[in-house]
Amino acid sequence: MTEIQEDWGKLRSLFALLRKERRIYVKYVLIAVAVGLIYVFSLPKTYSTSVTLAPETSGSGLSMGMSSLASMAGVNLNGMSEDALAVELYPSIVSSKDFLLPLFDVRVRSDERNIDTTYSAYLAHFQKTAWWNWPFKWVGAAIKYVMPGDKNKSASLSDTSSVKRLTEDELGLCQAMQGAIICSVDKITGVLTVTVFDQDAEISSLMADTVISRLNEFILDYRTHKARSDYEYVKNLCDTARKEYLDAQSRYANFTASHVDVYSAYVKAQSEYLQNESQLAYLAYSQLKTQVQTAHAKVLESTPVYTVVESAYVPVRAASPKKVMTLIAFAFLALMVATGKLFYKYYLKSDA
Fold this sequence. Notes:
This protein has twelve helices and six strands. By secondary structure, the chain is of the alpha+beta class. The relative contact order is 0.15.
């Protein structure tokens, strides 16, 4: 009973102390809220647009049962195939420079801000920034003016080299795009989500739709590359065989027409030889024609199909900054600072 009374007494003294020093809390919270308001309204608004895709899945019976059991265990069997381009690699593809560099030339428009330019020019010249970043931008611009770099470097180290060289501006744009374009994959379901953050709502939705379209083209080109190569190879052979067949048929027809009234062993043998050549050429052409149809079917079979679960819509509200949450965080920090000050004043300092 005595311990309970002592704890209750300490609690009452604590509340009395807080009531006595409440002005400190009010003062610190008001200051924190004012600083938080300045901070929040200094940040540019950022909008986000997400597009969700569901890749095709195949399988039945035992394979589907194993996939379900694996999903319950948190393991994805959809991406486990002989294909080197698994679903889990899509985020790495989207963040790669080979994927981002072609996006530089994408045309972006914003009716609200009267913008109609390329995406690279938009990122370089139409981005807002907080006021405390201005001195750093001025210093950077001054350094570039005093010590200008070589911005006209070639795209490769030599005419025959496949190694590419990026300028500092291009590298900076790629890094900015890597932070603005986020690709994520649900490891269990394999659902792909591409989210684009931008200071303009229209451009955010436009780039999200463009990124998902380019990713579809990239995956389509990869998955059908071998099948398309085989198809083109067989098609060229078929075209050549068709030409050879038409030539053989023409030689046989011309020879027969020019020796229609001539009867001899030589004419008969030559006619049979040309007829056989024409038949063999037709047989080769017919076989290759069948192979062309088979190769074309393989191209269609290897073409991936994706279902768009959620399309790109122009966002209505900004994704950041979150004003209320930021102000709550500043107020909580102010309460912690005020409590620390009182603790130091009444406990640590008095003990010293």
